[in-house]
TrEMBL record:
GO terms for biological process: regulation of DNA-templated transcription. Residues 687-752 form the HTH luxR-type domain. GO terms for molecular function: ATP hydrolysis activity; DNA binding. Pfam families: AAA_22, GerE, HTH_77, TPR_12. PANTHER family: HTH-TYPE TRANSCRIPTIONAL REGULATOR RV0890C-RELATED, REGULATOR-RELATED. CDD domains: LuxR_C_like. It comes from Streptomyces botrytidirepellens. SUPFAM superfamilies: C-terminal effector domain of the bipartite response regulators (SSF46894), P-loop containing nucleoside triphosphate hydrolases (SSF52540), TPR-like (SSF48452). This is LuxR family transcriptional regulator.
Length: 767
């Protein structure tokens, strides 16, 4: 609402400084302003604008990991998250919005400094109650919303209604009382309410809710009473933080006793929560479970909780200022330890339930739910590892979340939680044995087979010592993966067969399906086609019996490899496309990457060499995002190498590299459409065109012209003088023989913009 001057000033600062921090008290609207500025600047950042919400993060240790998650970087290597983040951003033109930095101020300052040094085209817009204090930072103090000058002439009613603070009040009041407007009758009361609240957006929004039961004049009277009480009779204007605190106090006092209890108890959640979680964690001792829904509804009506829709489910979020207030109340009531324990126990059970429901028709819903609950799961893990007597609980949670770690952005984080738990829990227990084989799979995906082998050796020893049949089954399975990775197919097959037998005996369909998939691939690798097909078909039967989809998709991938080897490329392609369709819906980059590889091999066999090269380019982009090629399927690398050599020989090196780059530069969604439907996006050239006559800097500016940026916006984005930008554009028009910017946009759309080696960009020309 409003903020035109502040938004313009923030944009100006971003054009001259690579780090801009919006500062101000809680509730003043820093986040809203940052989002507006980011949206306005979006076209100037070719690689996107990314929001990183830090309010729910309680430790700086996971700061870099949180940023990689927000950037949707799915690196599955064993590298430190900060190194992954630096490499990802190094050549990208990105605006990173770090929201709510104040409780992680030093960590955010160090992170910003490292990223800005390593990524010359990166800019950071931060929000914080104080400056980060790093070199080159510019700060903009976010003021309260504009109100009429108290000493100036009296505004007309229409003019008053256009003041930013009044406009917000009217907008929020209108959502409570449809048709509410500033009139000659209520104008003085409206203005005084907004002035009493110092124009703080959160205060205005909380106060407007009171119009359900009060007139504007009654609202004003009660505000006056509230502030007079707070200052023991003084009528002086309160400092803004006291003003907001008084307003929140009043909102709290106007809640019923049970609403206050729920407000305090909900404060233990991080990020968002659903009704089921609220019922489990917040009920009891004054709140019946069946009453939680009504109380949640009341807090939504009072703007204490915000309602969010996620697909077919509804979740709730509490603004950080209100959450901190609630946590203070919870601590004052002596309930904090108990509610934090209940929160941890709830998410420990949620992780266990997800593991139990992994193999069935609700699988994808569980994967989705765990991603929505990630902030709370992380809080539960932090709480567990913060107490020595609860570390085994934390290790169990981390082990139960195996499929959450490998089907999302969190594989590296999962490995770190498991490493931490294993170090803290050396006792020979079932939980440790299970965590060891769980962690070994993450290590295998990260190509860290040495660590995986050591963990599996200990897991097997514990399984034998404690008589744990499921542990022995999984230790055999993952030991087979290590052997296959090392090229020892015969040993791998023996281990996989042991795993199949043990999983049959324990009645574990998850382990059985996974062992059958790996055994099928191994027999395919040694040329035993009948056995490979039979094992794959058996795996499909197991999956279908349980209505399972994810392992089924990997089974189809494995069958596709063998059917392709037999020469039935049409059926092989159909299997891989079916598998890719599921992996795409789940957003599983590992599965997608393997599907793309096999489709590339199939295309090469069909002598559709250009398609094969494009698919290899798409797969390369996926593997770069994951951090390892054919991660977890190293024994298939020789097929990849043979395909590359054959396609390069058939097309010739220049055409091969051009086609690979053409695939690599496709946006992810368009790339998968091409893989599934064999259709390039409209306007995509089918063959490489002649080299561009433009310099790298001119090419960059031409791309910004094609995005519709003005000369002034281009200058701001590249931090050059507007006159310099205009000179470059004149050269571009002259070189291309064009007379308009529209012609440049059309030309850019038809050019091979990846003329250099994948992943490389030229240094900027001197401006």
């Amino acid at each position: 609402m409003g903020r035109r001057h502040e938004a313009a000033e923030a944009r100006r600062m971003l054009s001259t400084s690579r780090l801009v921090t919006l500062t101000g008290v809680g509730g003043v609207g820093k986040t809203r302003l940052a989002l507006r500025v980011a949206e306005d600047a979006r076209r100037a950042f070719a690689d996107g604008v990314w929001l990183v919400e830090l309010a729910a993060l309680e430790t700086p240790d996971l700061l870099a990991q949180s940023v990689t998650e927000a950037l949707e970087v799915r690196d599955q290597s064993a590298r430190p998250p900060l190194d992954v983040l630096v490499d990802h951003l190094r050549e990208k033109q990105v605006l990173l919005v770090l929201d709510n930095c104040e409780h992680l101020i030093q960590g955010c300052a160090l992170l910003a400094d490292r990223l800005l040094r390593a990524a010359p085209r990166l800019r950071i817009l931060a929000t914080s109650r104080q400056a980060l204090g790093t070199a080159g930072e510019q700060t903009l103090a976010v003021p309260a919303l504009a109100l009429p000058d108290a000493t100036g002439p009296r505004l007309s009613t229409a003019a008053l209604a256009q003041c930013d603070g009044v406009r917000l009040f009217v907008e929020r009041a209108g959502s409570i009382l449809p048709g509410f407007a500033v009139t000659d009758t209520n104008r003085d009361a409206v203005e005084r309410v907004c002035r009493r609240l110092d124009g703080i957006p959160l205060g205005i929004e909380l106060a407007a809710v009171r119009l359900r039961a009060l007139s504007v004049q009654q609202l004003l009277d009660r505000l006056d009473d509230r502030f007079r009480l707070l200052t023991t009779g003084s009528r002086s204007v309160l400092p803004r933080h006291q003003t907001l605190r008084a307003l929140i106090d009043w909102s709290h006092d106007l809640c019923t006793e049970r609403e206050r209890l729920l407000w305090a108890r909900v404060s233990v959640f991080s990020g968002t929560l659903d009704l089921e979680a609220a019922e489990a964690v917040c009920s009891g001792d004054g709140i019946a479970r069946e009453d939680v829904l009504d109380l949640v509804t009341e807090l939504v009506d009072k703007s204490v909780l915000l309602r969010e829709e996620h697909g077919t489910t509804v979740r709730y979020r509490m603004l950080d200022t209100l959450r901190q207030y609630g946590r203070e109340r919870l601590a004052a009531a002596g309930e904090e330890p108990d509610r934090l324990r209940r929160h941890r126990d709830y998410y420990r059970q949620l992780a266990a339930d997800a593991r139990a429901a992994l193999f069935g028709p609700a699988q994808v819903q569980w994967f989705t739910r765990l991603q929505l609950e990630h902030a709370n799961l992380r809080s539960a893990l932090e709480a567990s590892f913060a107490e020595p007597e609860e570390t085994a609980c934390g290790l169990g949670i981390a082990a139960d979340l195996l499929y959450h770690w490998i089907t999302s952005y969190y594989l590296g984080e999962g490995r770190r939680w498991l490493d931490q738990g294993l170090a803290a829990c050396p006792e020979p227990t079932e939980v440790r044995a299970r965590a060891l084989w769980t962690n070994s799979w993450l290590a295998i995906i990260q190509s860290d087979t040495k660590a995986a082998a050591a963990m599996l050796e200990e897991s097997r020893a514990l399984g034998e010592r404690l008589g744990l049949a499921p542990v022995l089954a999984y230790a055999a399975l993952y030991s087979g993966m290590v052997a296959m990775y090392r090229g020892d197919a015969r040993s791998a097959i023996a281990l996989y067969e042991e795993a199949v037998a043990r999983h049959r005996a324990t009645g574990d369909p998850v382990g059985l399906a996974l062992a059958l998939i790996r055994l099928s691939l191994a027999h395919s690798f040694i040329g035993d086609s009948p056995r490979a097909i039979a094992l794959g078909e058996e795996s499909l039967e197991v999956c279908d019996a349980y209505g399972e989809g994810w392992h089924r998709a990997y089974t189809m991938m494995a069958l596709g490899v063998e059917v392709w080897r037999q020469g039935d490329t049409a059926r092989a392609a159909a299997l891989e496309r079916d598998s890719l369709t599921f992996n795409r819906s789940l957003d599983d980059p590992l599965g997608v990457g393997v599907n793309l590889e096999v489709l590339a091999w199939i295309a090469a066999t069909d002598r559709d060499y250009r398609r094969s090269a494009r698919l290899l380019g798409i797969a390369r982009t996926v593997w770069q995002s994951i951090g390892a090629s054919l991660s977890g399927y190293g024994h298939l690398v020789h097929y990849h190498d043979e395909c590359e050599a054959d396609v390069a020989r058939a097309l010739g090196r220049p055409a091969y590299h051009a086609a690979v780059k053409q695939g690599a530069r496709l946006p992810y969604d368009q790339a998968l459409v091409y893989a599934l439907e064999d259709q390039l996006p409209s306007g995509e050239p089918a063959a490489p065109e002649r080299p561009s006559p433009l310099t790298p800097r001119e090419t960059e500016i031409a791309q910004l012209v094609a995005q519709g940026l003005s000369n002034k916006e281009i200058a701001a984005a590249l931090v050059i003088a507007q006159r310099t930008a205009e000179g470059h554009i004149e050269h571009i028009l002259s070189k291309l023989g064009f007379s308009s910017r529209a012609q440049v946009a059309v030309w850019v759309a038809h050019q091979d913009r990846a003329a250099l080696t994948d992943g490389e960009r030229p240094p900027d020309d001197p401006a």
